[in-house]
Design a protein that fits this description.
By secondary structure, the chain is of the alpha+beta class. The protein has 15 helices and 8 strands. Strands 1, 2, 5, 6, 7 and 8 form a 6-stranded mixed beta sheet that branches. Strands 3-4 form a two-stranded antiparallel ribbon.
Length: 348
């Protein structure tokens, strides 16, 4: 692969996408984009990134933002601890580096929420430090190029790939890293037939030569996700919905949610569960939805409960208020959308 360094750099120079965080090499912009791109496709991130930067244009604004506003800006991206760590890191940069993003890998990796990959990406792209970024795209390109059947789920395989690329990475390490990753994402694709004829590595690629790209990369089979059954209850009073903040630890902590309980509940059980919230007019069964997380699935049954009177009216909000001011996780967004479609439209 070392014989194709210039080919990779030339391909990237001619074919790189015009992405908003590539307009400059501002480490703040690269940092935010890299954190957002974890577990999320580039096309999906652009809108979130532009909204985030427009509201929090620099490190001090991120350090001083309220938690609720931060989580609202992150709404839809998931993995909300990433957003919380962004703020922790921004505070650290303000306190220890006078608000200026640190310029070396060793300092960057000390920041909350930043691991080897992100520190390598920022230091190579923004500060020309010779660091290697290894993600799924790079491992796929590497194992196909060499017909390497090492299991990429093992840290030893990742280290082997890292050390090999480090032995020949050029001075333009940031462009090389981004070029190799973009080849993996756009040409040496994970699903479907790779676009080998467009790839600058094809002449040396053993998978291209042997027509066996589908054998690589080798990785462990995914474990079955744990299924959690729950019942979601939309309490409705004067076309407003009850929401509460999740205070328990674990998934989606400090975000807002509709009332919910573990297990699949009957209409009668729901009636008794919500009596404490006010005078019940009716209980109606609603949609069933399964939301998939990294390690578990939520199998969600739902009810809409109409109340004639309530005890805590300050917990009820209009749909527009919820959409504009509260960070509602994707797992609950579908119930809000269904309420707008099936209930609010019928009353217009």
């Amino acid at each position: 692969m070392k014989d194709y360094v210039l080919d990779i750099l030339n391909w990237y120079s001619k074919n790189k996408r015009d992405l908003p965080w590539r307009f400059d090499k501002n480490p703040y912009h690269v940092w935010i984009s890299e954190i957002m791109l974890q577990q999320t496709r580039i096309d999906a991130v652009i809108g979130y990134y532009e909204r985030f930067i427009s509201q929090l244009p620099d490190i001090p604004s991120l350090a001083n933002v309220s938690d609720d506003k931060l989580l609202k800006l992150w709404e839809g991206l998931g993995y909300y601890n990433r957003a919380k760590n962004l703020k922790k890191a921004a505070i650290m940069i303000v306190l220890e580096y006078q608000g200026i993003f640190p310029c070396t890998y060793d300092c960057i990796i000390r920041l909350p929420g930043i691991g080897e990959y992100t520190a390598s990406a920022i230091s190579s792209i923004c500060f020309n430090e010779k660091r290697v970024t290894i993600d799924g795209n790079v491992m796929r390109v590497f194992t196909r190029f060499y017909n390497d059947s090492s299991n990429i789920s093992f840290s030893s395989t990742k280290k082997k790939i890292h050390d090999h690329i480090l032995s020949f990475i050029p001075l333009k390490s940031g462009d090389f890293n981004e070029g190799l990753m973009e080849i993996g994402e756009r040409l040496c694709i994970p699903n479907g037939v790779p676009k080998c004829e467009l790839c600058p590595l094809k002449k040396g690629c053993l998978a291209y030569k042997n027509s066996n790209y589908y054998l690589f990369p080798v990785k462990l089979e995914k474990k079955e996700k744990k299924i959690v059954v729950m019942t979601v209850i939309l309490l409705v009073w004067k076309q407003k919905l009850f929401i509460q903040k999740r205070m328990q630890g674990g998934l989606l902590q400090h975000l807002f949610e509709f009332l919910n309980v573990e297990g699949k509940k009957s209409k009668e059980e729901v009636f008794h569960l919500v009596e404490e919230y006010g005078k019940i007019s009716s209980v109606q069964e609603s949609i069933v939805y399964t939301h998939v997380f990294t390690h578990k699935k939520w199998e969600m049954y739902s009810y809409i409960v109409y109340l004639d009177d309530v005890i805590h009216s300050d917990c009820f909000f209009s749909v527009s208020d919820i959409e504009n001011h509260f960070a509602l996780p994707t797992a609950f967004q579908v119930f809000l959308s269904n309420f707008k479609k099936e209930v609010l439209q019928d009353t217009l």
